[in-house]
């Protein structure tokens, strides 16, 4: 796997690069701003971009906007966003803009090496890995959402789906049967107006459907 890292903090940039190297993942470019990220994507055509949200010159949302632009220029480009905060406006645009190969993790997750590496591999493979706290905050901030029609258990299942868990993994986490999870997933699809399907696209669209409202 070939990765481009965009992070303005030298320590974190080198730390992530070393962590990935320990897992046999090659960093083909490590840059510190959004423009350099776009250039690196064109030059290296990476399998994944790991992008910080706040980078020069204003340290607000440059990284997230660059990630969105990178995916616009290279449709399907897997992007894993790291942030200390949930940047609502552009997070919604990034997540709703494509149903595969997208991740949004809070930086504290990098401390859990296994969890972080699992997220890297999942997103690079076209899956999704969205921090539960990110989903929670976006749900709270959304005034009107089709998610409002879900039961507490269905919301819990949806949150685990957002983290990229399979039905079997969700069942193990919630200590329920696979059949119970399949029923909840079917109800979620129905309430959100999505045709039931086990494909990654439909699962992620279920997670992100409320973002379009």
TrEMBL record:
CDD domains referenced in this protein's UniProt entry, alphabetically: LuxR_C_like (cd06170), REC_NarL-like (cd17535)
Coiled-coil residue windows: none
Record domain HTH luxR-type: where: 143-213
Domain of life of the organism encoding this protein: Bacteria
Pfam families attached to this UniProt entry: GerE, Response_reg
Chain ranges of the Response regulatory domain: 2-122
Keywords carried by this UniProt record: DNA-binding, Phosphoprotein, Transcription, Transcription regulation
UniProt cross-references to InterPro entries, sorted A to Z: CheY-like_superfamily (IPR011006), NreC/VraR/RcsB-like_REC (IPR058245), Sig_transdc_resp-reg_C-effctor (IPR016032), Sig_transdc_resp-reg_receiver (IPR001789), Tscrpt_reg_LuxR_C (IPR000792), WalR-like (IPR039420)
Modified residues (4-aspartylphosphate): 52
Name of the protein: LuxR family two component transcriptional regulator
């Amino acid at each position: 796997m070939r990765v481009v890292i965009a992070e303005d903090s030298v320590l974190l940039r080198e730390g992530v690069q070393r962590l990935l190297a320990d897992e046999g993942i090659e960093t083909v470019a490590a840059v510190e701003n959004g423009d350099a990220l776009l250039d690196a994507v064109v030059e290296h055509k990476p399998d994944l971009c790991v992008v910080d949200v706040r980078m020069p010159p204003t340290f607000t949302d440059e990284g997230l906007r660059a990630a969105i632009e990178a995916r616009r220029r290279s449709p399907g480009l897997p992007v894993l966003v790291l942030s200390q905060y949930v940047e609502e406006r552009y997070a919604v645009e990034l997540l709703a803009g494509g149903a595969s190969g997208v991740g949004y993790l809070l930086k504290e997750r990098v401390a859990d090496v296994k969890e972080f590496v699992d997220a890297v591999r999942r997103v690079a493979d076209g899956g999704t890995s969205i921090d539960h706290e990110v989903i929670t905050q976006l749900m709270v901030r959304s005034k009107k959402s089709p998610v409002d029609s879900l039961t507490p258990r269905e919301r819990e299942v949806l949150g685990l789906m957002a983290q990229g868990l399979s039905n079997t993994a969700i069942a193990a986490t919630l200590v329920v049967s696979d059949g119970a999870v399949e029923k909840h997933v079917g109800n979620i699809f129905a309430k959100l107006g999505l045709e039931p399907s086990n494909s990654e696209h439909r699962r992620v669209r279920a997670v992100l459907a409320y973002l379009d409202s």
